[in-house]
Design brief:
The structure holds two protein chains of two kinds.
Chain A lengths: L1 H20 L1 H22 L12 H33 L2 H5 L5 H31 L10 H26 L3 H14 L11 H4 L7 H13 L7 H33 L6
Helix pairs in contact in A: 1-5, 2-3, 2-5, 3-5, 3-6, 3-7, 3-9, 5-6, 6-9, 6-10, 9-10
Chain B lengths: L33 E10 L9 E9 L3 E5 L6 H9 L6 E6 L15 E4 L12 H11 L4 H14 L15 H14 L4 E5 L7 H16 L3 E5 L12 E6 L2 E5 L1
Parallel strand pairs in B: 3-7, 3-8, 5-6, 6-7
Antiparallel strand pairs in B: 1-2, 1-4, 8-9
The chains are: A mainly alpha, B alpha/beta.
Chain lengths: 266, 251
Amino acid sequence: MRPWREAMWGIVRRDAILFASYRTQFVSQILGPLFTITLFYYISHLLTAKTIHSPGGYFGFVIVGLVIVQILTLSLGIMPITVRQELVSGTIERFLVSAHGPVNGILGTMLFPLINAMLTGVLMLGLATVIFGLPLAATAVLAIPVSLLGMLAFMPFAFILVALVMAFKQVTSATQFIIAGLAIVGGLYFPIAVLPGWIRWASEVQPLTPATDLLRHLLVNTPLAHSAIVDLLKLVGFVALLLPAGFALLRVAIRYGQRTGTVAEY
Amino acid sequence: MSSITPAPPTATSETTPGDDLPQVPGAPTPTMKPVLELSDLYHRWKGPKPPVLDDVSLTLRAGEVTWIGGRNGVGKTTLLRLAAGILLPQRGSVRIGEFTPSSRGGRYQRQIGFLSAGDRGLQARMRVRQQLDYWARLAYVPRERRAELVASSLRRFGLEELAERRVDRMSMGQRQRIRLAMAFLHEPRVLLLDGPRNSLDADGYRVLGEQIEWVVGRGAVVLWCSPRGEDRVLACDAGYTLEEGRLERVE
């Protein structure tokens, strides 16, 4: 396990070095969320919807959604782009000829974006609390393990997107489509209750809804739609079901590319 | 991985431009032990084209240097990619001893050093030492030997003075030295080199020749592909041209 661990750390270190080498990236990663929070803070003054039962009003409700969107964008959204860059620059070939292998290499490539996304989420909540007076609940610290579980539940979507990149090379529009679709049916900007009945089923068949429900409860004390146990069981179920399937699909896509020769194309 | 006892040649010996190009094996007489075995390899790209490789077989025995030439697009890179395990054969097999590219734990890949054609495959914004350390980790070089092998590679390929410089600020020839250093770093038994002379100056070519001489002296094998005859190692053990999917021996 030690060589595997050290190779994984090597990839995280590589990505941290590359991230730090673009000096404006860090600044823009703070300013972007800050402006978004500011925008929604003032929009929330206009809204007094009765369907929102959050102690912090609409701002308290939507801030959790914004944090989750940011995390999805920086992890799920960035993965296919990163892997595509690796294909174009030929660095993915290093994984293919290394003892670490392409599947582990791609797994390692996912780690830094996940860490970065988590830290950005924490930063957003910090800014919302310090600058805009978000009433953060005492249970907020429990959101960390729930976020990790939520990320595990979303890893398969990243696997699927990366598998599509390996097979078809370009899926940027699909990523945007998936994140926007999840934001609608997962109730990130508004309660699911306002959705028409015919689409509401979609809220129950993906992991974003239980993750959002739990995180809102833990972070800003919004009442749960289901019990916490039900939400947790749903998340664990999604992880158990989707993670092996996503992993298998990634392996198949890489082997398909190796067999047909498209793995070297970009 | 076998351990090294004699110190490898370094890139510090004096040369002047125009020095004779390296005469590689004067080293050991090749033994009969096969190291890399390519058997009946067949590969066909999509579309109504003939196969690029049609039942190609090649065995490299310990201490051998083999050159393969041929026109552009004839399939040399495909052959090397199959040997490296980047591509999987549509038919036929690739073996190093008991291992195939699909063997668990990267056991096959641990034994190959691969240099792709062109100048790709480097992390542009990393420093040279970071780049080599990163590769050593991916190659599962044990922690105890990593720093030593990175330092040794920097020395052998004349990169010591560039160790703390970023890759994207270097010339093509310097980048090629880094790519070569990565291919040799983890002491592979099989070196697969696709156009290794690309962008190298006379000194770089001499260094490459010395390193090849040193690794074949330890029983490794080298498969060198380049389009032109003058690019090959001058005294290789065997030479082939690839034409219409088949290898033909050249003297």
